[in-house]
Every structure is written in structure tokens, then in C-alpha cells.
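Re-run with default settings, no changes from the original entry. Doing this only to confirm the output is reproducible before filing.
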Amino acid sequence: MILPNKYIAVQDCIFTSSAMILNLIKDKSLTTDKLWGTCDKKYNQNEQVLSYDKFIISLTFMYSCAMIKIDEKGEISK
């Protein structure tokens, strides 16, 4: 589920959704609610590309790999 393979499509893996989220963070600090709102507006306009569950799992994956940081205020940044 983290990486695509023969059975998991590229758009369904955590690696791809993490890249989509990192693209939105850039050099800003956003709370989880604001980041989800931005993701939902950008990627889920016509169809459900990124579910909330996959969003949270991707944040957990990125935090455990030290790709993002979470400060005392709960804001997420690179």
C-alpha cells in the first residue's frame, strides 16, 4: 500500500498521496484542518482521489519518515 506494484495502482499508494500533500505544503505552515481543506478543494473536485483516511495515513507516513514536522501549535511544515 505504500508503493505501487502489480496489484496496487500508482494513484492508490501512500507514496503518491504523500507527494500530492507535500506539493501543497511547500514552504507554508498549515494546520491539519486547513491542509485537508486545501487538498479536498484541489484534488477532489470531480471525483474522490484522496480520501480523509488516506490523507491521515499519508501524514503519519511522512511524519515517521521525517518528511514533515509538526510544531507545538499543531501546524505542519516541511
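Residues 19 and 41 are 16 Å apart (CA to CA). The chain is about 45% helix and 10% strand.
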